[in-house]
Specification:
596 residues; alpha+beta; Heat Shock Protein 90; 21 helices; elongated
Length: 596
């Protein structure tokens, strides 16, 4: 038995959150990998079937990729953060958040798609690219990609909400279908039907439409918790989603301008071979970048819920997972890429005598070094966004997405050619760490001594240590002492004897049910039940969170037969003595909140 109000004991729900984090991580990575894998397949087909110049066309499209991802992540992160806030204050509004997010995303994606068509038809790219054949290839690729933009943006929104509903099999199926369709389409529309770069873009568009429809089937089946309804829309949620989400998208949005600047520097000081080498290494590393971006997507969900519940310890635990688990993993992945630089290069270019070959090898040897640094900067940018730290949520993404790389590239690319760009990316990570430390020092007015200091969590955030108690239950032996602990907690805080007794009774009954039934159904892996008891005004709030199979106690009460009054009597008593009982399955965890 552990309680987090004792300073020398570990935080109770760290291990539960860590298990939850890594259960969700593969599916969040999958969302990002979809675009990245499609990009690497496009790159392989472009370089080996269409021709080296096609790689330049894909490289020219990279800034638009960042822009599209920025639009999508603005809506995804903003809706997730607002969703988390609604859970704590107005849970009935989550359907409005879902519906408004989809409608606004559809509008934005249609406008973007139309703008891309106009840009292709009017040959806007000729303003920065003088080679007519490259312009033609790019315009064809752009025109075909525009077909799939609505599906791309909406599919990413559905993916995020499916993750909240813990529909991992559906998301996995959608990702596999997307990958398979794109791979087959690339070969069909280039090798069999010679459509060149238009074929590459068309295959991508068809694949994201399939990705969207596989997910949409769940929301049209009537089985989803979240329901789309124009009548449920509260349109004040639209600006709130954008307000909460813009800082999360800011880094990717400014990356578009960074890519434009970097592409111009490469073309001026290195040439098209430099752009081709950077596109090749980026197309593969884009898959690897899905790991840290997936980590941050899970962090955002965990943090949004912790902030909505004003749960200080869960917020700290989410950041602890990043430092203790994510950072070592990314360091190991970076080392593996570095030692595999030559075979990775040979996926794209075979002749070591060509300059593009050597440039690509150095890209694989240097660029991975910035990935562990990026985990930390992305994690703090996510926290700043979720906690609505306005200045930090703007400054850090701008430095990370644009200023850090761009300013150093201006000096290093002319002097070091492509190696200068690679070094600039590493220095960018160091600069971001300095920015994080500077905000922490400014916030606590001294050098940070703890994670709490580093995050600059307000002292008045969440209930104080005197108004809460946290308990971890792992066996029926622990359950036996829960009631006494809760009753003692209530008495020490002036709660009347009746409510103190009822609080202990309710918690012992529900905790016992979880251990007896929930733990028994999942013997293949360990389970834990994390309990938080809060005094808020005159209310005693009991929150039970476990990672067992989904089960709503209210359903068990509702389906009881009248002739079996003795069955589940304990649970029915809890519902009668409580002012309010709320159940939610969040990110694969059962969360039961009882107000006495």
């Amino acid at each position: 038995m552990k309680t987090t109000n004792l300073p020398d004991q570990p935080v109770s729900d760290y291990h539960l959150l860590a298990r939850l984090f890594f259960r969700l991580l593969p599916y969040q990575i999958l969302l990002i990998v979809i675009n990245a894998v499609n990009g690497i397949v496009d790159g392989l087909v472009a370089s080996n079937v269409v021709g080296t110049e096609a790689m330049s066309a894909i490289g020219l499209y990279t800034p638009l990729t960042h822009f599209l991802y920025a639009l999508s992540i603005m809506m995804v992160s903003g809706s997730q953060l607002l969703y988390g806030a609604c859970l704590g204050k107005r849970p009935e509004s989550v359907h409005s958040v879902f519906s408004v997010d989809l409608l606004v995303s559809l509008g934005i994606s249609l406008v973007t798609s139309l703008a891309m068509v106009l840009a292709a038809v009017t040959n806007v790219v000729s303003l920065s690219v003088s080679d007519a054949s490259q312009c033609t290839m790019f315009n064809r690729y752009l025109l075909a990609q525009a077909i799939g933009i609505p599906a791309l943006v909406l599919g990413q929104q559905l993916f995020a909400f499916l993750s909240l509903e813990n529909r991992t099999r559906r998301t996995m199926a959608a990702g596999i279908v997307c990958f398979a369709v794109n791979a087959v389409g690339d070969l069909l529309f280039t090798a069999v039907i010679p459509l060149g770069t238009f074929g590459l873009g068309l295959a991508s568009s068809i694949s994201v439409w399939m990705f969207f429809f596989v997910q949409l089937l769940y929301y049209t089946s009537g089985r989803s918790f979240l329901k789309f309804s124009r009548k449920a829309c509260s349109w004040k949620d639209a600006p709130e989603i954008m307000r909460r989400g813009y800082s999360g998208a800011l880094s990717r949005f400014v990356e578009m301008f960074r890519c434009l600047l970097v592409n111009a520097l490469i073309l001026k000081f290195v040439g098209t071979e430099g752009l081709s080498s950077f596109s090749a290494s980026n197309s593969f590393l884009g898959v690897v970048w899905a790991v840290p971006f997936g980590m941050i997507a899970v962090e955002r969900m965990l943090m949004s819920i912790a902030l909505g519940e004003e749960d200080r310890e869960s917020l700290l635990n989410a950041m602890r997972v990043m430092f203790r688990r994510c950072l070592p993993i990314m360091a190991g992945i970076a080392a593996l890429i570095i030692v595999s630089a030559v075979p990775l290069t040979r996926m794209f270019y075979r002749n070591p005598a060509e300059p593009v070959y050597q440039m690509t090898v150095m890209g694989f040897r240097l660029l991975p070094l910035c990935m562990p640094l990026a985990v930390v900067s992305l994690g703090f940018a996510c926290y700043a966004q979720a906690a609505q730290k306005k200045l930090m949520s703007v400054v850090l993404p701008v430095v990370d997405g644009f200023a850090g790389v761009s300013l150093t590239s201006l000096f290093l690319i002319p002097a070091m050619k492509m190696n200068g760009l690679y070094v600039a990316n590493i220095l960018n990570g160091v600069i971001c760490l300095g920015v994080i430390l500077a905000f922490s020092v400014a916030g606590v007015r001294r050098f940070p001594k703890s994670l709490d200091d580093l995050m600059v969590i307000p002292e008045d955030f969440g209930p104080s240590a005197d108004d809460r108690i946290d308990i971890t239950v792992r066996s029926m032996k622990d359950v036996e002492t829960v009631s006494r602990q809760v009753i003692d907690f209530c008495r020490r805080r002036g709660t009347d004897e009746r409510r103190a007794f009822l609080s202990g009774l309710a918690l012992e009954e529900m905790a016992g049910n979880v251990v007896k039934h929930g733990f028994a159904l999942g013997r293949k892996r360990p389970h834990s039940l994390d309990i938080r008891v809060i005094r808020r005004g005159d209310d005693i709030i009991l929150r039970l969170r476990d990672d067992c199979l989904p089960f709503d106690p209210a359903m068990g009460v509702q389906i009881q037969e009248p002739q079996s009054p003795e069955h589940n009597i304990g649970t029915r008593i809890v519902f009668r003595i409580s002012r309010r009982v709320e159940y939610q399955n969040l990110l694969g965890c059962n969360v039961l909140t009882i107000t006495v």
